[in-house]
Specification:
single chain; elongated; 53% helix; alpha+beta; five-stranded mixed β-sheet; Beta-Lactamase
């Protein structure tokens, strides 16, 4: 135990003793007696301070831990030999003896430290003549004293035991020394008389153990008298001091073990440096020697690859270097030094992503089985393969879009043929109904109600005109949707040479998505300008952008009460038409906002997303000289805004 630790205990002891002093002054003594006790106590406090100062100047509480002392090997040998921990293994008994003596003198109580069987470890402090020279001089009295001392063990070091002695009947108190979970000794104080005092019972005990009764009673009169409350205060102070000494002793022991382990590790590291130096010079791959993932050492290639020095690698695990998405994979393969080969993503010190191929083997290093990882950076190879695959996917997707356009065009034609029968014949049916209505009315007034097609004429004449009108409206809507599909899928030259009315583009797009929008939300709100300046471009491609944005908003909704808002306006100062789609859906993570227009980037891969929709939309808007931007909606969801420049007067003249 170091000098600061001893000083901490010393001042704690002094504070407890001042508390004891306050209690002693409360004893029922006459005024002169109180003064004498107070002066004696102050003298004892000064004596205790002097003895503590002497201890601080000469040695530490737990002994001399000089260069020849090796606590770690000392206690390791005890464990290997199967020996029980003893009080002497943790403490310097002579130093404890001096503290015990000072405590006894200051508190006017007897004190001794015993092992678990009641055998003394320290010499008795301030033992009264009754116990030391009368009771313990008899065989039976000594046996009873040891039995009483051995019974003072407690499982709670901060709660003292206070009771009459099992031998002489004087009041004793005590606590236990615990180091960790080991009970190694008891600290017993007492040999005081606490009122009420039964001298007759004590006198009978003298006869029982074979002691001289007159000498016994004469020695009994010399035993100090103390109230139970004051004796309890002394016992509580004892508990706190003993507990602090035990805690600090255990810390010293653990610190010695940690220092010894560190010395072993440092020696092993020096031993491995020369071996690893040759390995580091012979390879360009990063080599990590580790124990269940904890990095022991690495080569220069590893330091260059990740940007850390050898010292900075110390204490890190290999999975600490991995990207969060790959951390579990790396930990799984390295935790047991298992033989394996796998790929994972890592992060260098500057944040650069590294895609690596890892091969792991088990080797013997410094006499122990450890793992060795060879890490090869394959980022460029993987990136090249990814780009090649993306181009292949783009070609496949382009071919699909062409095929889809042909399919949609054919379906539109097939739907339009039967629908044309309805659009042509429904006006004729409406005219026929109007012509026969007077005849049917005359018949109804002359003969009363009658059935036509299973319906009463009185009911039929009220909704038949509306029925025909709705049928004609439905046929017209089918025709409009078919024409919009044909326009959307029509293959047209890429030159942007037409004047486009964005009001028509918006209306045609909404006509195609009417059913989807009504199914996804009950709050679809429009804030559209009826008259917008024309832009130069391709109406089908601009419609494709708007449809893609609206479909994405629909798919982002998780509840039909969440809304979608579509607005358009002319920004005269910038000569732009601005269209905004805002939704209250799940939104887009901030780290994804800048990447969502990258080809094949998608957060909906598992649900069939290709990552091409927004990429194609961004390309279309850029071809029109505009911009496509995405923002987080403060109320939740996403805001998408695309702007297209309008045709200026100079362009109209051309």
């Amino acid at each position: 135990m170091c000098l600061p630790c001893l000083q901490a205990i010393s001042w704690l002891a002094l504070k407890m003793l001042w508390d004891v002093e306050e209690g002693l002054v409360e004893m029922e003594l006459d005024k002169d007696k109180k003064t004498d006790v107070h002066e004696d106590f102050i003298e004892e406090l000064n004596t205790l301070r002097g003895r503590v100062a002497e201890l601080e100047a000469t040695r530490t509480l737990c002994g001399d831990f000089g260069k020849d002392c090796n606590l770690n090997s000392r206690f390791t040998d005890l464990e290997k030999n199967g020996r029980e921990y003893r009080f002497e293994d943790y403490f310097d008994v002579e130093a404890i003896q001096r503290i015990q003596d000072a405590f006894s003198e200051a508190t006017n109580v007897a004190s001794i430290i015993t092992d678990l069987d009641g055998r003394p470890i320290t010499r008795p402090s301030r033992f009264c003549r009754l116990c030391n020279d009368v009771i313990r001089k008899t065989e039976k009295g000594l046996k009873n004293c040891m039995r009483s001392d051995a019974s003072f063990g407690t499982k709670s070091p901060l709660e003292p035991i206070m009771r009459p002695c099992l031998s002489g009947g004087l009041w004793d108190g005590g606590t236990s020394f615990y180091v960790g979970d080991r009970h190694i000794a008891n600290w017993i104080i007492g040999q005081v008389r606490c009122p009420p005092i039964n001298d007759d019972r004590i006198k009978k005990y003298a006869h029982e153990i074979g002691a001289d009764e007159d000498e016994f009673m004469e020695a009994l009169e010399e035993v100090p008298v103390m109230s139970r409350e004051q004796f309890l205060s002394v016992c509580n102070a004892l508990c706190l001091i003993a507990n602090q000494i035990s805690i600090l002793a255990r810390k010293n022991f653990l610190q010695a073990q940690a220092i010894a382990r560190r010395r072993v590790a440092e020696a092993a590291l020096r031993e491995s440096e020369e071996r690893f130096r040759q390995l580091a010079q012979s390879t360009f791959e990063a080599i990590f020697i580790h124990h269940e993932g904890e990095i022991l050492t690495t080569n220069r290639a590893g330091q260059r690859l990740f940007g850390y020095s050898q010292e900075e690698f110390a204490g890190l695990n290999i999975d600490d270097l991995a990207d969060p998405d790959s951390r579990d994979t790396v930990r799984f393969h390295t935790a047991k030094n298992r033989k394996s080969r796998f790929e994972a993503s890592f992060r260098s010190r500057d944040g650069r992503m590294l895609i690596c191929e890892i091969q792991q083997r088990e080797i013997i290093f410094q006499g122990e089985r450890v793992g060795v990882c060879a890490i090869r950076d394959i980022t460029e190879r993987v990136e090249s393969e990814r780009q090649a695959k993306e181009k292949e996917q783009q070609l496949i997707q382009a071919d699909k879009m062409v095929s889809l356009g042909v399919l949609v065009s054919g379906m539109a034609h097939e739907i339009n043929n039967p629908n044309s029968f309805m659009t042509l014949n429904l006006p004729l049916l409406d005219e026929i109904w109007r012509d026969i209505t007077p005849v049917l009315e005359d018949y109804y007034h002359e003969n009363g109600d009658f059935l036509a097609g299973g319906l009463e004429y009185n009911e039929l004449r009220s909704f038949m005109p509306d029925l025909l009108a709705r049928m004609q409206e439905g046929a017209s809507r089918i025709s409009g949707i078919v024409n919009s599909l044909k326009d959307y899928s029509r293959l047209e030259p890429g030159e942007l040479m037409w004047e486009v009315d964005l009001v028509d583009v918006i209306n045609n797009s909404l006509r195609l998505l009417e059913n989807l929008i009504s199914h996804k939300t009950v709050r679809f709100e429009l804030d559209l300008v009826d008259d917008l300046p024309q832009v130069r471009g391709n109406s089908q491609r601009l419609s494709q952008v708007l449809i893609n944005l609206l479909v994405n908003s629909c798919e982002a909704l998780t509840d039909r009460n969440q809304g979608i808002f579509l607005s358009s306006k002319y920004v005269e100062r910038e000569k732009l038409v601005e269209i905004v789609v805002c939704d209250e859906g799940v939104g887009i993570a901030e780290e994804h906002l800048k990447k969502i227009t990258d080809p094949f980037f998608t957060t909906k891969r598992t649900s069939g997303g290709t990552g091409l929709g927004l990429s194609v939309s961004s390309t279309i808007v850029q071809e029109h000289g505009g911009s496509l931007e995405f923002f987080a909606n403060p109320d939740g969801g996403t805001i998408a805004k695309f702007s297209i420049p309008v045709i200026t007067d100079g362009e109209n003249d051309e």
